[in-house]
Design goal:
This protein has one domain: Beta-lactamase (3-Layer(aba) Sandwich), CATH 3.40.710. Helices cover 34% and strands 19% of the residues. It has helices at residues 2-13, 18-29, 73-86, 112-116, 130-133, 139-148, 163-177, 181-190, 247-250, 256-266, 277-283, 340-357, and strands spanning 33-40, 43-54, 59-60, 66-68, 210-211, 228-232, 235-238, 253-255, 296-300, 303-312, 315-322, 327-333. The strands form three sheets. Strands 3-2-1-12-11-10-9 form a seven-stranded antiparallel β-sheet, sandwiched between helices. Strands 5-7-6 form a three-stranded antiparallel β-sheet, with no helix packed on it. A two-stranded antiparallel sheet has the order 4-8.
Length: 358
């Protein structure tokens, strides 16, 4: 109630509440650092940070602090995939070769659309144990797994979230562009959108340090995730490991300011050489799995929001898009216990209230 009253007063006074929301959320969630950007009506109306990127040095978080964006990477991979569809290099419903070759001949072939909408039938992580071993597969290992794996379900039949499916899209992109996923993403998406501080996989220069929650290790102290480093106060450092062939699923890094440029693009601002407006609209169309093409879809009252969360190397992130109201929010954090969706929701409500007050 206090927050709603504060927003109402600030909106009436024409002041921005976003910095206060960010500070309050960081303290309530007990995370070292948070960075965020808010877009409204084709402009960035807030870009800022709260807390520290590194506890030991006290380096402050800003809108230009680099974070790993985890599975929000999938939005970038989807854009690059759909760029190739726009260029007629790929077809959304063309069969994808080299996956589940032992599947029954009566089963539908896996298509690009299935991979983009998590309805391919592929497992979430395959038989890889990388979250605990840090042994991420390279391209050859991933190809070998894809060729011999069985399917969780019939392609197109149901939703089953799959990191492996988006890694497979990365291999398709490399085959079609005859270049690395990193180079293709840079040349065809990041550079045209002016996202100079974003990359397909790390290690990222100047990245915020990731941390375990205060007093805890995840999943637990007897079997923590890979890469638990030195203790700093009541937290432990989380170490980065190269995601290798899994990078198209969750390995990218960016800044809040760069992600604001991505949000402007997804809301329809220019750059039709990257994706046509029609294709950007198609990303938000509900598919058989219930998701869009590379994004989740959620109803919020009368609005349909395009969303995606992310987690990697103790960095948690959230993207939220309201196309009808022209509002987008991206939140980046550097602790395993962060809840960036709650922060994004608060920033979104504030942006919507300010818009209604204008």
């Amino acid at each position: 109630m206090k927050t709603l009253l504060l927003l109402t007063v600030l909106a009436a006074a024409g002041e921005s509440p976003f910095e206060d929301i960010l500070d309050e959320a960081r303290v309530q969630q007990d995370v070292p650092g948070v960075s965020a950007v808010v877009v409204r009506d084709n402009e960035i109306i807030f870009a800022g940070g709260s807390g520290v990127a590194d506890i030991a040095s006290g380096r402050l978080v800003t809108a230009d602090t680099t974070f790993y964006i985890g599975s929000v990477t999938k939005v970038l991979t989807a854009i690059l995939t759909l760029h190739l569809v726009d260029q007629n290099d790929l077809g959304l419903d063309d069969p994808v070769p080299g996956i589940a070759l032992a599947a029954p001949s009566s089963a539908p072939a896996i298509s690009v659309r299935h991979l983009l909408t998590h309805s391919s039938g592929l497992d979430r992580e395959g038989n890889f144990n990388y979250w605990f071993s840090a042994d991420f597969p390279d391209g050859n290992s991933l190809s070998g797994y894809l060729a011999r794996t069985s399917l969780h379900s019939t392609p197109g039949a149901q939703l089953h979230y799959s990191n492996i499916g988006f890694a497979a899209l990365g291999q398709i992109i490399e085959s079609e562009t005859q270049s690395s996923f990193t180079a293709a993403l840079q040349e065809r998406v990041l550079h045209p959108l002016g996202m100079r501080a974003t990359g397909a996989h790390g290690p990222a220069p100047g990245v915020a340090q990731g941390y375990t929650p205060a007093g805890r290790m995840l999943p637990n102290s007897s079997r923590p995730f890979a890469g638990i480093g030195e203790q700093v106060g009541d937290r432990h450092v989380r170490m980065y490991h190269d995601a290798k062939a899994m990078s198209p699923a969750f390995g990218a890094y960016s800044t809040a300011r760069d992600m604001g440029r991505l949000a402007l693009f997804l809301l329809g601002d220019g750059n039709e050489d990257v994706l046509s407006l029609e294709t950007r609209e198609a990303m938000r169309e509900r598919q058989r799995s219930g998701r869009g093409l590379g994004v989740g879809l959620e109803r919020d009252g009368d609005q349909v929001l395009a969303t995606h969360g992310g987690w990697f190397a103790a960095h948690r992130s959230q993207l939220l898009l309201d196309h009808e109201n022209g509002i987008a929010v991206i939140v980046l954090t550097n602790s395993d216990n962060a809840a960036p969706r709650r922060i994004a929701n608060a920033l979104y409500r504030a942006a919507l209230l300010l818009k209604l007050a204008d």
